[in-house]
Amino acid sequence: MHLPLYENRPVNRFSIKAQEALGDTFRSGRITTLQINVGKVCNQACKHCHVDAGPNRTEAMDEATAERCLGLLERHRFPVFDITGGAPELNPYFRRMVTRARGLGVHVLVRHNLTVMFERGQEDLPEFFAAHDVEVVSSLPHYTSAGTDRQRGGGVFEESIAAMKRLNALGYGTGRRDRVFHLMHNPLGAFLPGSQKDLERDYRRELARYGVTFDGLFALTNMPIRRFRDWLEKAGQLDDYQAKLEAAFNPAAVAPLMCRSTVSVSYDGKLYDCDFNQMLDLTVADAPSALEDFDLEALERRRIVTDNHCFGCTAGAGSSCGGQTA
Ligand code: SF4
Ligand code: SF4
């Protein structure tokens, strides 16, 4: 069994800051979310994608790994099953996993890019989500067509509006507890997001012009990894952006970080602290990193593996899969 040792990883600026903020080692507590990334296949190829996903990628979770994830849910009954990708709906085992998880009474959250429901064979996705009370979280970088299309590609805003109308028609984004629909905003350049509250107000006002509603908005910071990092490097802004994140470090954002209550599984069955560490291939420390050796007790005591990208999660009001935290 391969047991990665935390001691082998270099101390970094973030780990020192996090420890100071907590007055304790930066480690996991009780795991309440099993997050899985089912692969890199996506119908879009967004400029800031931290997964490097796109239509030409082929990496996808296979049936045996999907079954292992379901086995973990059966055994441990984590309250939340968070499914991401790529476009997770394009994975052949996606619907099986949602159906079985819901059958166990587990809350299922899907990171859904909106436009995938217009792909062949996906036309009934909104009805599938509704039939299983799936919580839907969708990225819409901006409430203007120009802002969203600049980051996600031409025509994406218009399709996203059409998709949101379909979700609204089924009761999503209308305040129903069994039809939760959240949007995610991320900045269009090398700067921090504005106040989540103000952005949510602006999104509500502007999307109302299209007759579209949603339950809440999460404001996320762009992480300096993968495509966004490449973009920063090309623009000569990487050092400035990293400095900006570090200068905006907010100690109050450390305690609620999602990596402290999540385990993230990759399409090929490895365990990580979060989806960002997954993209950097920083597997968990202090516990086996292979899915088949899943050790809940060790994972709930593990030290979180960090590096300087983690400053993206603690800048300003904080940024996590659930938006600003502090
Ligand atoms: S929709 Fe999401 S996963 Fe797909 S390319 Fe865009 S950011 Fe990446
Ligand atoms: S990047 Fe991951 S490990 Fe680092 S602080 Fe953010 S959620 Fe935690």
Structure characterization notes:
- The protein is of the alpha/beta class.
- It has a single domain, classed as Aldolase class I (TIM Barrel), CATH 3.20.20.70.
- The chain is built from twelve helices and eight strands.
- It has an eight-stranded mixed sheet with strand order 6-5-4-3-2-1-7-8.
- Helix 2 (63-76) links the parallel strand 1 and strand 2.
- It starts with 12 loop residues before the first helix and ends in a 12-residue tail after the last helix.
- The structure holds iron/sulfur cluster (2 copies).
- One iron/sulfur cluster binds next to helix 10.
The average pLDDT value, as a whole number, equals 93
What's the CATH superfamily, by name?
Aldolase class I
Question: What share of residues is helical?
Answer: 25-40%
The tally of structural domains comes to 1
- Shape assignment: globular
- Unreliable stretches (pLDDT < 50, length at least 5) are 1-6
- Lateral arrangement of strands in the main beta sheet: 6-5-4-3-2-1-7-8
- Radius of gyration (Å): 19 Å
Order of helices and strands: HEHEHEHEHHEHEHHEEHHH
Named CATH architecture: Alpha-Beta Barrel
CATH topology: TIM Barrel
Q: Give a list of the ligands.
A: iron/sulfur cluster
Q: Structural class from helices and strands?
A: alpha/beta
| E-strand count | 8
What would CATH call the class?
Answer: Alpha Beta
Distance between the termini: 39 Å
Q: Please tally the helical runs, counting DSSP H or I stretches of 4 or more residues.
A: 12
Main beta sheet: 8 strands, mixed
Strand content: 5-15%
